[in-house]
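Sanity check. The docking grid for zinc ion depends on where the pocket ends up, so I'm generating a full predicted complex first rather than guessing from homology. Inputs follow.
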Amino acid sequence: MAVTATVRVMSAEEIAAKAGGETPFLQLPQRATLFAERAMRLRQLARGHAMEDFLVFMADLAQAQHTRLAQFPEVPLPDADALDRAAERGVPPLPASEWPRDAAWHGVLRALVADLREKAPAGTQPTLARLETVDGEWLERQADCLLTCVMEGLDLATAPLVAAALQVYWVHMVAAVVQRQSRHPQGGQAFGRIDDATACPCCGSRPVASITRSGGELMGQRYLHCSLCSMQWHMLRIQCTHCLGTKHVAYQSLDLAGADDDSASRAAGAAVQAETCDDCGHYLKIMHSDREPFVEPVADDLATLTLDLLVSDTGLKRHGVNLMLLFGEPEPPPGAP
Ligand SMILES: [Zn+2]
Ligand SMILES: [Zn+2]
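Predicted complex below; grid placement will be based on this.
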């Protein structure tokens, strides 16, 4: 059952403020480890899980993403002027819905499919076989649907694989832009705040979940994790990630050990919680890396589907997007007409 727990929020920010520290706005996706760590976490979560086969397949897919990201071909990137123009307008410089995609990502998708053919379960083989025959035009139409959150015309069977290739493409672009700008410090910052605090500052996508981070100068500050490019951007824990309201944010989690006197305290200490907002009726999962060091937003979101079922039963709408598992009618991305 779901247990609502009252927890004290803001402590991390309060401590940081008292210490005079400043919270970095962005945590960059690490191209050398991002997908490998996701694969490792998925394997860990898969053991004995009701969705074991699915999670193992997702682990293989993340491992293939890791391999293909390391070999990503050179593609056009926004130049320093384009970054400046986007910053002036307060919009993301690599917008998921508008960026002119280079066809290189089709080759990455075919490589992912080839990597998976041997290990994939029998039920997935026809989907993989189909992806070997589709043309570029079809793939671009699927990408349009995925990146603009339009379910009509979206092929749900192939969507996770198409999305996986697009994730590799966007992580590559974000990492390559950051690397290029760091070599030319006078070129300014690659990415920064945009007008819409609820959207990814690099690509404008919705978050999959949020994660608290500790270590170094961080003391539990909360970051939203982009569903497409894996950039993480800071948002205060007291704020609803959908409407930015602060009045009615609460937390729910699965009561793992059943109902007894300790269930409320266990719920308050859960590594994955649903952060709910009564003002706008939405929720987003929050993952606590201080409670579970290997927690990973995409992987842990997939493994806690039961929490979505419990929370959506109360009438709340899911704000997070997980491109590996699309369900329901997604809302248009923030800022869309
Ligand atoms: Zn993004
Ligand atoms: Zn809200």
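Relevant for the grid: Residues 6-10 have pLDDT under 50 and may be disordered.
Also worth noting: Residues 31-187 form a domain with the FdhE-like fold fold (CATH 3.90.1670.10).
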